[in-house]
Amino acid sequence: MLKSKNSSSFSLDWIQQIPSSIAIIDTDYNLISASPRWLVNFQFDLDQIKGKNLDSLFPELSQELTTRLKYSLDGLRDIKFKYNAKNSHYSSEDSIWHLNPWKDGYGNIIGVIIKTEPISKTQELELELNKTKLLLNNKRSVAKIGSWELDVVNNLLQWTPVVNKIYGLKVDYEPTLDNAIDFYVDESKDIIKKALDEAINSGKPWNVKAQLQQQDGKIIWVNTIGRPKFKDGKCTRIIGTIQEVDEINQIDIQLTKLENELNEYPLFEKIPLGLAIVDFSTGRIINVNQQFLKLSGHDKNYFLNKSVKSFVSSTLISKSDNLMQQLENNGVFKPEKFTYSNKLKHQLNLKVTGNLLVGRNNKKSILCTIENITTQTKLEKRLKNTINASREKNDQLLNFAHMVSHNLKTHATNFSLLLNFLNDEKGLTQRNKFMTMLFNASDNLSETIKGLREIVAVKSNVNNEKKSLCLNDSIFIVEQNVAGLLKQTNGKIINEIPDDVTIKALPAYLNSILTNCITNSIKYRSEDKTPIIILSAEENENYTILSIEDNGLGIDLEKYGDQLFGLYKTFHRNKDSRGIGLYITKNQMEAMKGKITVESNPGQGSIFRFHFNKK
Question: Which part of the chain is the Histidine kinase domain (predicted)?
Answer without folding.
Answer: 403-615
